[in-house]
Amino acid sequence: MIKDLTKGKPESVLWSFSIPMFISVVFQQLYNIADSVIAGKFAGENALAAVGASYPITMIFMAIAVGSNIGCSVVISQLFGAKKFNEMKTVISTTLISALVGSILLTILGLFGTKTLMELLNTPANIFSDGALYLRIYIGGFPFLFLYNICTGIFTSLGDSKTPLYFLIASSIGNIILDIIFVRNFKMGVAGVAGATFIAQGLACVFACVTLFKRLKSIETTEKNALFNLSMLGKISRIAVPSILQQSFISIGNIFIQILVNGYGSSVIAGYSAAIKLNTFTITSFTTLGNALSSFTAQNIGAGKTDRVKNGFRAGLKMAFAVAIPFFVLFFFLGKPMILLFLKEGGKTALATGMTFLKIVAPFYFVASVKLIADGVLRGSGSMKEFMIATFVDLILRVVLAFALSPILDDTGIWLSWPIGWTISAILSMYFYLKGNWKIEELKGANNDDD
Predict the structure, then answer these.
(1) Model confidence over 351-380: pLDDT tens digits?
(2) How many Cα atoms are found within 13 Å in the side-chain-facing hemisphere of 380?
(3) pTM of the prediction?
(4) Contact at 8 Å (CB) between 248 and 112?
(5) What is the CA radius of gyration of the chain?
């Protein structure tokens, strides 16, 4: 259902729009976690480590998809808010064509570079083959992942956060069922984990594309829209490229950290793999709320309603804190049973590693949520310079501190880099929000639309 986010009480509108998106990310992360849980429980600690070792590389591909999602959704939201439906349809078709071509090229490059990427990560020999196999299958399904993310971005930019939820629920349940069948019943190991994701994501992509095309036909325009427009691609790229760089640089930073982690052996890798999946669940939840706020901000900027954006920011903080509390309680006080979800009995080093990571980062989820909500306004308004500065400070600090502290504190030094990076970057994001540069970007966007 298409929804205009420029009308109604801002807090109520944002809550009703964000909740389906949040439920969507819960299901998405549940099936990501299920991959690791089923690998660890039924295929062993090395299988869990193999999936975890390739995780930073898979996140680079995910970063490209998510960054493109953000780029198109901001532009589409602004045009939808301004009721420029013909231009909006051109942006959508331009995005889909570009995404299809780009994803195929990246898939080809990724398949040829799998072994080299795993070697660069300093992957231990006992998990190298399984890690490379998982990565090849994952990359093979990247076009489906890319197009699916683009479709969900388009749905949310039109104010429809429920349709992506339905697809994700079906995809998540299907993925978990296939995981169990392939890994437990057919004993396919990491190939079964990757294959289940490939099939589930592929089906979700096909159904999402078909539904999107039908939905767009219901939006009437005065004339036939162009299928591809370079000028529109430039507008999308102005938001998408910084978003892709931001997401990718974070993933690249995680690769450097993974290299450090891999030097401590497969047991530490397994514990880190379990903990980082749980941590990603939390951070992705905050990011999703930030993305909802970006769509809300972009639509209201298109309509020239600044005060609604301020109210939306306050509502976003309330939602983020409400999400942070249960994650903090679960991971800080119940870290052991959470990590044991991924492990068979006897993995003492892996268990200790995962619990230590969660104890260190969980109290700082409140800080991370502030940063990501403020980033939602900056991104939705097109203030990409400020957005990227705050994000890159987090990334650079995390990597530098991980390398600086690990010789002194071993792997604990790596985990300490997370809260320090979050804290400083959160201060920057809030400074940029309070400074109000995003309002200037709003006026620029309005003037450009008038042109």
Answers:
(1) 999 999 999 999 999 999 999 999 999 888
(2) 35
(3) 0.74
(4) no
(5) 21
